[in-house]
Design brief:
alpha/beta, OB fold (Dihydrolipoamide Acetyltransferase, E2P), 2 domains, five-stranded parallel beta sheet, 26% helix, elongated
Length: 252
């Protein structure tokens, strides 16, 4: 074994961050946050409009783009769609209504203004985890408690929540996340993948109807054309999955 292999791995370089926002206060706040994390993130530049940012990004590589949505001339979402190879993107906005567009565009995170420092630190941690292989941990984290046979534990930003299978109506792919629609009308957003959810749910009750949907077949009200009606929701049935859906409904 060479002596170089015994040396500890060098820590990843701080992430180069560009902020694009037409509000000067936003630059002041995020610059102060970045200055408190010198080993994790570094200020690469400031742009006060999307057009200015296009010019900046052509000349200067960055790792992370903190991007406001509502800006004159060109919105943040329009800028993101115009970039052929965008860096990691974190949307910063006062409006939650842009979340669907954000995740469809593959953003890393979505920060609502006013941005709290502890929430910002969590975002930087996610970015760092994606920027370099994670360091080995001395001890594995404690596993979540085993779920009873009639339920599943779903991890969200607010914590880990136990959900009974009977209460879980539809599982929907949502960009890099999954939405779990409950009978109560609540929606849980989790970072689990559709593949993970499918493997954790009982195949006897949960059927894949589409690449983006899993349905609790016991809660289906009716099949109409290529749609399943589950409560107030209409769930598409893809041609690839139709045979399996009909078999589960015993309609073959």
């Amino acid at each position: 074994m060479s002596s170089s292999s015994l040396l500890p791995a060098a820590p990843p370089a701080p992430l180069r961050c560009l902020l694009v926002d037409d509000e000067p206060l936003a630059h002041t706040v995020l610059r102060a946050y970045l200055d408190r994390l010198p080993g994790l993130a570094a200020w690469a530049g400031s742009c006060y409009g999307a057009v200015e940012a296009l010019t900046f990004l052509r000349a200067t590589p960055v790792d992370v783009l903190f991007l406001d949505v509502d800006m004159p001339e060109l919105t943040g979402l329009e800028l993101l769609r115009a970039l052929p190879q965008p860096p990691a993107v974190v949307l910063c906005t006062a409006h939650a209504a842009h979340a669907l567009d954000a995740f469809e565009l593959g953003v890393v995170d979505y920060l609502l203004k006013p941005i709290r420092f502890e929430r910002f630190v969590k975002t930087i941690g996610r970015l760092q985890a994606g920027a370099a292989p994670p360091a080995p941990l001395p001890l594995a984290p404690d596993p979540p408690p085993p779920a009873p046979a009639d339920s599943i534990f779903i991890k969200t930003d607010a914590g880990t929540e136990r959900v009974r299978f009977a209460e879980l109506l539809v599982v929907e792919g949502y960009g890099n996340f999954v939405k779990c629609h409950l009978a109560s009308g609540r929606v849980l957003l989790t970072a689990e993948t559709m593949k993970q959810m499918e493997s954790e749910l009982p195949a006897l009750h949960f059927v894949r109807t589409h690449k983006s949907y899993l349905v609790n077949i016991t809660r289906v009200d009716r099949l109409s054309g290529n749609c399943l009606h589950v409560g107030s929701r209409e769930v598409p049935v893809g041609s690839t999955y139709r045979h399996g859906v009909l078999a589960s409904l015993k309609l073959r």
